[in-house]
Amino acid sequence: MSRPVPVALLGLGGVGRAILSQLLSPPLASRFQLVLIANSRQSLSLPLPNSVPLTPSNYLPILEQHGAPLDVPSIVSVLSTHPDAPGIFIDSTGADTIPAMYPQILSMGVHIVTPNKKGFSGSSELYEAINASAYPNTTAVVLGESTVGAGLPILSTLKDLVATGDEIQRIEGVFSGTLSYIFNEFSKVEGGDVKFSDVVKVAKDKGYTEPDPRDDLSGTDVARKLTILSRLIPSTPLLPEGYASIPTQSLVPPVLADAQSKEEYLDRLTQGDQYFDDLRSEARKEGMVVRYVGVVDVEGGKVEAKLAKYPFDHPFATALKGSDNIISFHTKRYSPRPLIIQGAGAGADVTAMGCTSDLIKIHERLTTRRA
Amino acid sequence: MSRPVPVALLGLGGVGRAILSQLLSPPLASRFQLVLIANSRQSLSLPLPNSVPLTPSNYLPILEQHGAPLDVPSIVSVLSTHPDAPGIFIDSTGADTIPAMYPQILSMGVHIVTPNKKGFSGSSELYEAINASAYPNTTAVVLGESTVGAGLPILSTLKDLVATGDEIQRIEGVFSGTLSYIFNEFSKVEGGDVKFSDVVKVAKDKGYTEPDPRDDLSGTDVARKLTILSRLIPSTPLLPEGYASIPTQSLVPPVLADAQSKEEYLDRLTQGDQYFDDLRSEARKEGMVVRYVGVVDVEGGKVEAKLAKYPFDHPFATALKGSDNIISFHTKRYSPRPLIIQGAGAGADVTAMGCTSDLIKIHERLTTRRA
């Protein structure tokens, strides 16, 4: 068995905590050596001096008591100079600032795994700088499987299709767990007259939405995922400003565009109900349901996030349940019927799994020798 | 860019031809160097002496005219002693004899990629010998993504789930393109009274079945796939005889069990229609359709291939179309709703893609360096 690969984990929110927990558990614990954990303020070098083992339940008080102020360049330096270097830098923050450092981190030979969408869905300048500093242009690998569909094998499948010479014609899917839940409840094949505002409130109460539901309803998160997918396909539009270059339909109803706070927005949400009621009944007359989808139309040269109608027997109407994602790849090989992947596309455990499966892929790449 | 990895391709049937075609085309051609192709009788070393480039349209006459008698050990020796060794041995045969040599091939450091199910679904003795000779126990990698679901990411997803510490509870799916087509046509949500024998004949005429349709209807192919899946899950039954250890329902109707030839079988197929008619109407009374499925029930410790009934709103009833495979993974993380993968699970191009994506994974592993 090879020596464990050194790993530093930055970001200890819900996903970071789940990554930590998977890293400390049996199947992964022997392959990786956690050399450092950090939140936005403090970092903790490992192993602990008193040889107490780190666990998912003790790390927080220990970090708070013994942590040093966060210093990202010195973390990268630890990973690049470790006896078993280069190590892997896990960016589990939601920050813009860390992805801006990816080119520099990679150019020190350190690998990166991240669920953070910012680096891959922002300006094409940053995206190209990241790629220029990464495999196959350098020895450092950067992977972000969980940036789209969490633990679902979406990006790896798209990469395989492209790399083996298939031609992507169209990718179409429900990419937001929150918007999946909202429209699966609001617009059902079997009918129903629940109010849009009531569904959003239930989704918020269940913790399915961001603290400010407008962050989900703006469609920005979907546009970021579409950017990441598009950029993996040769011949798609350049998207110089990343997600901001994608036409994105906002679900904040026009009548509420002037709401000043999330409180005011939620209070006044019923004012938007007529707008969504009309959409739903118009669709129903045509035998359709309403879904919020993302589309990468390679042949048409269009990428967009929008409300769309689907017939009652379409998988987006019948097969989609709860807050699942569903993504269909229409390609030259997968034609006329697409390749479809469906399942939970959000949640700490499955998002962490997307990251730890990336860690394993890097581990395998580092421990397979040519001779 | 690293030097191309040497590759030998054994087996030039439909899938082998498609692998050859993908290997000779742009995205892959620069990563791999094809050093030899062979069918069951002859092999041809490459590049050709007259420096004519090999193409998907000229290889067959050239092989027939200039091929040397097939000698597998010398092929392996070429791959292990090549200046860019070790190379990759692609077994695209359907033979039992080649998989029996995997342990020996791997122990010479040569990697293996294969769509051939025989090595992974036969005796546990051979399976364990293969594993003992492969990564992570040695430096040689063996991958067979396309042995289940062709180009669909079934095995890679299962491996990721297991390796990241998820607990598999149940895998359930329609694993045979042929049986998918037959039952999607025979037992529909919207009803219909087509005869089983007529559907089988159409499937045969369309080329969806093996030359002898009983090879599909026996369920053996499904049992082989279930064996391959089960063996990747810790705590599943041992299956000492591989697929032969799995309870497998045959669809050759009892009344036809004594048919001596495929001709006699097809002639007399209508004698079995009553049997299937009864199954269908019994299911229909309960609001169900009939499907031929494979189940790996980890919690119950059971693996079986059988006819089963599914409610009209189940994905196996509504989402399944044509000859698609659909596989659902019920796990601790993907619960209560499973992770579902669906799409063409057979066909030369997508099966070849499963192989060439394995080739790329090995290429990445060989060209990522620790420093």
TrEMBL record, chains A, B:
Every Homoserine dehydrogenase catalytic domain range: 153-360
Pathway listed: Amino-acid biosynthesis; L-threonine biosynthesis; L-threonine from L-aspartate: step 3/5; Amino-acid biosynthesis; L-methionine biosynthesis via de novo pathway; L-homoserine from L-aspartate: step 3/3
Residues where L-homoserine binds: 210
Residues annotated for NADPH binding in this entry: 93, 117
Short name of one Pfam family: NAD_binding_3
PROSITE patterns recorded: HOMOSER_DHGENASE (PS01042)
UniProt EC number: 1.1.1.3
UniProt entry keywords in alphabetical sequence: Amino-acid biosynthesis, Methionine biosynthesis, NADP, Oxidoreductase, Threonine biosynthesis
GO molecular function, one term: homoserine dehydrogenase activity
Signal peptide annotation: none
Residues in Aspartate/homoserine dehydrogenase NAD-binding domain copies: 11-135
BP-aspect Gene Ontology terms: homoserine biosynthetic process; methionine biosynthetic process; threonine biosynthetic process
Keyword Oxidoreductase appears in the UniProt entry: yes
Residues noted as binding NADP(+) in the record, renumbered to the chain: 11-16
Highest taxon of source: Eukaryota
Function: Catalyzes the conversion of L-aspartate-beta-semialdehyde (L-Asa) to L-homoserine (L-Hse), the third step in the biosynthesis of amino acids that derive from aspartate (the aspartate family of amino acids), including methioinine and threonine, the latter of which is a precursor to isoleucine; production of homoserine leads to a branch-point in the pathway as it can either be O-phosphorylated for processing to threonine, or O-acylated for processing to methionine.
Family statement drawn from the similarity comment of this UniProt entry: Belongs to the homoserine dehydrogenase family.
Name of the protein in its database record: Homoserine dehydrogenase
Organism: Saitozyma podzolica
